[in-house]
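Please check what follows.
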Amino acid sequence: MQIRRNSYPAEAELPPCPFRHEPAACLQRHGFYERYATPEGNEKRRIPRFLCVLSGRTLSVLPANFLPYRPIGVEAVQDDFDARCDPEQQELGGLPREKDPPDGAIVQGSLRRAWQRFSQTDRLQSLLAHFGQRLPLLRSACQLWRSLRQQVGSLEAMLLELATAGRSLLKDYRCLSPN
C-alpha cells in the first residue's frame, strides 16, 4: 500500500498504520525501494517502506511531489494541466504554453499521457463521484480541472484528499486502498 508523506505530521517518526493498528505497536521500518524521479530516468529517489507486523502487509510513503506510478512531478503536471485548460488560450485554438514544460520528448510525452488518462470518461466519472456536489455540472476534462483548482486548490492537495479515500488523479490504483 502507498500513502502520501504529507498525510501525517512532519514530526512523526512513523506513518499511521492504514491497516487500523496502532503504529507504535505494529509498524517497523522495512527498507526502501528506488523509483525514477524524472521521466528521463537519470535520477532515482528512495521510497521508504514499513512493515505492519500484525498484518504482514507493507506500506510505502510516497513524497508529496510524486504521482503514483508516474515519474513526472506534481508541479509539472499541474502547470501543464493549467496551461491546457486556460480558457483564453483555448479560444485562440492552440495549446497554451505560458510555462513551457522542460525540453525533451520524454517529458512532453509523459505530460501528454497524463492528460490523456485524466480526460478519459472513466476518470472523469470517478473524480466527479468523489468530489460530488462541490463541483458544478461539467462536460469536459478542462471544466473539471478548472473546478478542481478552484474548489480544492493545488494538485498536491487534490492528491492528498484523493489518497485518503483510496483514489488518485489518473487511476484508482489498488495500492492506495487498505482493503
